Amino acid sequence: MSEIFKYKYDDLFNPALKALKNLGGSGSVREIEEQVSEILQLSEEEANDIHRESTTKLSYRLAWARNYLKRYGLLENSSKGVWALTEKGKAISVVDKNQVKRAVVKLDKEERQVKEKPSPLDLESASEELIEFSWQEELIEAVKKISPEKFERLCQRLLRELGFLNVEVTQRSNDGGIDGQGLIRLGGVLSFHVVFQAKRYQGSVGSSVVRDFRGAMIGRADKGLILTTGNFTREAKKEANRDGAPPIDLIDGNEFADKLKELRLGVEVELVEKVKIKKDWFENF
């Protein structure tokens, strides 16, 4: 089977840099992906080509590209998931991809010598973002094995944990794709009626799903929310925020997994204790 998305991670070094410059020097992962899609003029098929589970090849390979550019000193990222150009990154328009790879390999070799690690580098272990793909995929796979009814109840529990009130799963048929409803209160003053759709899905959710859901929610709610174990196509994302239409919020599989982890729903996080001996403390005792 031929590969649709043909760009390798190192082919994305310069598009990623250009994307961040277009965004004013910083941007979220989603904003960077959208910019890179436009820069490379990707077709819908290319942009939506799946790597594994709910992660596209574009998302996965861009994560590797950002990791290399960060280690090369051109990018930095915050705990909030925002990536930004460093001073060095702002001063560079184009990089030689082979030079970047050689520099990162050299840096890793030096780090291993300092840490006395004989094993070769697995760059994935050096990047929190890349590590996330592994546990997210395992979690999403477990969620996809439950029944659609259980997935709806899981979405209900998730929304309750996130602060929604009066969350109900609808039992009606022919509800236009609405699986549940609830209230969200902002600042303890303003309340919004929200309807949601839960799609335990393999692959990509297209724009037609978003359009149909919007049609069902109009006149019945203030806001709409679609949660899926899959991912949303580029056109679906555009449709969700189309000018002149009620906006719909989207939570894809990776974001769904992040929320489950954050709320410790079906997820246990083990913190590993690291002991560092301060030898100079004893010498100066």
Structural class: alpha/beta
- Topology, number of strands: 12
The helix fraction, in percent, is 40-55%
Say what the CATH topology of the largest domain is.
Arc Repressor Mutant, subunit A
Strand content: 15-25%
How many domain units? 2
From N to C, what is the helix and strand string? HEHHEEHEEHHHHEEEEHEEHEHH
Architecture of the largest domain, CATH level 2? Orthogonal Bundle
CATH class of the largest domain: Mainly Alpha
The Cα radius of gyration reads 22 Å
Helices, by number, come to: 12
The CATH H-level homologous superfamily of the largest domain: Winged helix-like DNA-binding domain superfamily/Winged helix DNA-binding domain
Provide keyphrases for this structure.
285 residues, alpha/beta, Arc Repressor Mutant, subunit A, five-stranded mixed beta sheet, three-stranded antiparallel beta sheet, 45% helix, 18% strand, Restriction system protein, restriction endodeoxyribonuclease activity, Restrct_endonuc-II-like, DNA binding
Fold and architecture overview:
This protein has 285 residues and is an alpha/beta fold. It folds into two domains: 9-126, Arc Repressor Mutant, subunit A, CATH 1.10.10.10; 146-263, Trna Endonuclease, Chain: A, domain 1. The chain is built from twelve helices and twelve strands. It has helices at residues 13-22, 29-39, 44-47, 57-71, 87-91, 97-115, 128-144, 148-161, 207-217, 234-240, 253-263, 279-283, and strands at 26-28, 50-52, 55-56, 75-77, 82-85, 165-169, 180-186, 190-199, 204-205, 223-228, 231-232, 248-251. The strands form four sheets. A five-stranded mixed beta sheet has the order 6-7-8-10-12, sandwiched between helices. A three-stranded antiparallel beta sheet has the order 1-5-4. A hairpin with a 3-residue loop joins strand 7 and strand 8. Helix 7 packs across helix 11. It is globular. Residues 9-92 form the Restriction system protein Mrr-like N-terminal domain. One of its GO terms (molecular function) is DNA binding. Residues 144-258 form the Restriction endonuclease type IV Mrr domain. This is Restriction system protein. Pfam families: Mrr_cat, Mrr_N.
